[in-house]
Amino acid sequence: QGRMWAYTVGFTVLPHVGGFLGWFINRKEIPVWYEKLKKPSWCPSRKIFPVAWTVLYTGMGYASYLIWNDLGGWSSKAIIPLGLYGAQLALNWAWPPFFFGARNLKMALIDILCLDSLVIGTMCSWYRINKVATLLMVPYLGWLAMATCLTIRIWKDNPEQKPGKSE
């Protein structure tokens, strides 16, 4: 019981690690490249993203702890629900390097479409285990829906530059 707080904190903080690294590595590309992209009028302000991701990562991290705890830790029953969660987290962390780092809008779009599917799969696998954990993922899925639409629009509205062409 005394170490449970460490697990709670660990699971809750874990999603922030990849999110922070993605921001840190790509932070110079945001003002240089991202600001020049054509974006729809409903694109959230850059100031919203860190606040939104802090809330979303905290909720999904704590939700993963609830699932882990309800399944008795690292058990065979946890393989699929936590495996789906881990896979979606990996795709979540992969999006910034595709989008900002490689400036590969098509790969970022493929990534986020797969991410959407994995988040839905994660939520479906969690529903019978812990409904609160599933509900904690709802804001994340909603944000991803917006982010997916935004990625589609940016991909469509900003044709990729061919090598050798000047900007």
UniProtKB/TrEMBL annotation:
Main location per the UniProt record: membrane
Cellular component annotations (GO), alphabetically ordered: mitochondrial outer membrane
One Pfam family from the record: TspO_MBR
Keyword Amino-acid biosynthesis: no
Keywords associated with the record: Membrane, Transmembrane, Transmembrane helix
Membrane topology: Multi-pass membrane protein
Subcellular locations according to the entry: Membrane
Keyword GTP-binding recorded: no
Top-level taxon: Eukaryota
Parts of the chain that traverse the membrane: 6-26, 47-68, 74-95, 135-155
Record-stated family: Belongs to the TspO/BZRP family.
Name this polypeptide is given: TSPO protein
Organism, scientific name: Anseranas semipalmata
